[in-house]
Design goal:
The complex is a heterodimer of chains A (about 260) and B (about 260).
Chain A lengths: L2 H20 L2 H21 L11 H17 L1 H12 L2 H7 L4 H29 L8 H28 L3 H6 L1 H6 L15 H9 L1 H13 L7 H27 L3
Chain B lengths: L3 E10 L2 E11 L4 E5 L6 H8 L7 E6 L2 E2 L4 H6 L1 E4 L11 H11 L5 H11 L15 H13 L5 E5 L7 H16 L3 E6 L2 H7 L2 E6 L2 E6 L1 H5 L16 H9 L11
Parallel strand pairs in B: 3-8, 3-9, 6-7, 7-8
Antiparallel strand pairs in B: 1-2, 1-4, 4-5, 9-10
The chains are: A mainly alpha (about 260), B alpha/beta (about 260).
Membrane topology (chain B): Peripheral membrane protein
Family (chain B): Belongs to the ABC transporter superfamily.
GO molecular function (chain B): ATP binding
Chain lengths: ~260, ~260
């Protein structure tokens, strides 16, 4: 990125971050549903769930909750982008002599910041609910990198939704399947407890790999093969969503 | 060099042939009105001039730069105020202007913002979120944002649609000031009196072509000479309204 593009991106990120500072409820609502789910699972359902491992249930399911947090957090990106598209703001920005990519990156960087805060909130409550990690500093860094990569990839999916949506509701509807996806993965119950077809799906979808990687990092078991599967999924998704975003952006903004 | 030069411009949306061979020349420093009813293609033309849309055929030069091959130079040399307010409602009026001033790389963004707030009578509301502004205030802020950076060409797409009479006259005043300071103004309007009041030249866009172009005097010549009738001069409703609400400037008084 050229220094001019960085300058524009910094300004537009600051603008978008200000939206979050002025309506902190977007962060609270992002964090509150996963927190409620976590408490429900830990203190209501958890006693009846047999994960087949010795770790406490909150340790087991936190990675899935973190993915749900990200999936609901990125919906705000498509919402804000949709508003820019439907109000005159996008026309004005595009009529300025600024870098075009900065218009999208401003929203994407804001999403990274907002989701990081939501994730910290959720992890904080998890600690209060009894979550304990055996992770080293290096493990934690790997956890942070994985969560960041997941947020980045899903944010670009959100960008596609925000650019192509026709209504406000449509802009955030894409996030519902994303929020449900962790339930059909190893996030809350081991996949071998599921019917055969469902288990097959669960074992081969990206959330299972990501959740397994996060879990093994947090429990201090180090990395296993799942981290490479996760990395491959995330890089693939990131490349596809980013490319498609740029394509949709170019198409939507060219007559 | 002309501020705007358009030759043989065509533009279609799927089956809809919106512009069918538009030719247009706008001289620097003038006010040019593009008159047409809804759907005549005014906005399409403005968006092509500001590089938001690409032309299907024809050549478009803005301040000597080709919109097809030098879009960046075109964007540097004009500013657009579209038909719908392009304002971030979460930011204050001042923050909106500051954002634009910084994106346009003004040497002193703070001063540029404050000067525009002052000029558009928004100083008092400067630190309020734009979403709390009235319609007239939003339109003024929108116009102000279009002037950040002092581009030599200003495109105004229906600048007074939806404004109350006072704001409308205020807007006219600002447009005249802009032209007086050497800025070229191209505005679209569906109000005949607006074109009559402001424009040095008027083009009538109808069904995708410019069917007539010239000064107001030129256009008047198209019709038979005026017949003299004796009509008692009654104040217009606008005169009465402005008198009652105590506006400092009457429509005539706003004429520079």
């Amino acid at each position: 990125m050229s220094s001019a593009a960085l300058h524009d991106t910094r300004l537009l990120t600051a603008r978008s971050l200000r939206h979050i500072l002025r309506s902190p409820d977007t962060i609270i609502t992002t964090a509150i549903t996963p927190i409620a789910m976590m408490l429900l699972f830990v203190f209501v359902f958890g006693g009846a769930i047999n994960t087949g491992s010795s770790e406490s249930y909150v340790d087991y399911m936190l990675p899935g909750i973190l993915i749900i947090t990200i999936a609901s957090g990125v919906a705000y990106t498509s919402y804000r982008l949709f508003l820019d598209m439907s109000e005159g703001m996008m026309l004005r920005l595009r009529s300025l002599p600024i870098s075009r990519s900065s218009i999208l990156w401003g929203h994407v960087l804001t999403s990274l910041a907002a989701n990081a805060i939501s994730l910290l909130l959720v992890i904080g409550v998890a600690f209060l609910a009894g979550f304990r990690a055996q992770a080293s500093v290096l493990d934690w860094l790997a956890v942070a990198a994985l969560l960041l990569a997941t947020t980045l990839a899903l944010t670009w999916v959100a960008v596609i939704a925000g650019l192509s949506a026709k209504t406000v509701d449509g802009a955030s509807a894409f996030s519902y399947p994303l929020i449900l996806l962790p339930f059909i993965s190893s996030a809350f119950v081991p996949t071998d407890s599921m019917p055969k077809a469902v288990a097959w799906f669960a074992e081969h979808q990206p959330i299972t790999a990501i959740v397994d990687s996060l879990r093994s990092l947090l429990t201090g078991s180090g990395v296993d093969a799942s981290i490479w599967v996760s990395a491959a999924w995330l890089l693939g998704l990131l490349a596809a969503a980013w490319g498609l975003s740029l394509y949709v952006f170019a198409r939507k903004t060219r007559g | 060099m002309q501020a705007i030069e358009v030759h043989g411009l065509h533009k279609s949306y799927k089956d809809l042939h919106v512009l069918r061979g538009v030719d247009l020349v706008v001289q620097p420093g003038s006010i040019y009105a593009l008159l047409g009813s809804n759907g005549a293609g005014k906005t399409t033309l403005v968006q092509i001039l500001s590089t938001l849309l690409s032309a299907d055929a024809g050549q478009v030069l803005v301040n000597g730069f080709d919109t097809a091959t030098q879009p960046r130079h075109v964007r540097e040399s004009l500013s657009l105020t579209g038909q719908f307010a392009a304002i971030d409602g979460v930011l204050t009026g001042r923050e909106n202007l500051l954002l634009l001033a910084r994106l346009r790389r003004q040497p002193d963004p703070e001063r540029a913002a404050d000067a525009l707030l002052e000029r558009f009578d928004l100083t008092e509301a400067a630190s309020r979120r734009a979403s709390t502004y009235s319609g007239g205030m939003l339109r003024r802020l929108d116009l102000a944002m279009g002037l950040v950076g002092g581009a030599p060409l200003v495109l105004l797409d229906e600048p007074t649609t939806g404004l109350d009479p006072q704001s409308r006259i205020q807007t006219w005043h600002i447009i005249r000031e802009l032209a007086a300071s050497g800025t070229t103004v191209l505005l679209t309007t569906q109000y005949l009196d607006e074109a009559e009041q402001l424009a040095d030249r008027i083009a009538i866009l109808h069904d995708g072509t410019i069917i007539q172009e010239g000064t107001l005097a030129d256009l008047r010549k198209l019709l038979p000479p005026a017949t003299i009738e004796h009509v008692a001069k009654e104040p217009t409703l606008e005169d009465i309204f402005l008198n009652l609400v105590g506006s400092a400037s009457t429509p005539e008084g706003a004429t520079s």
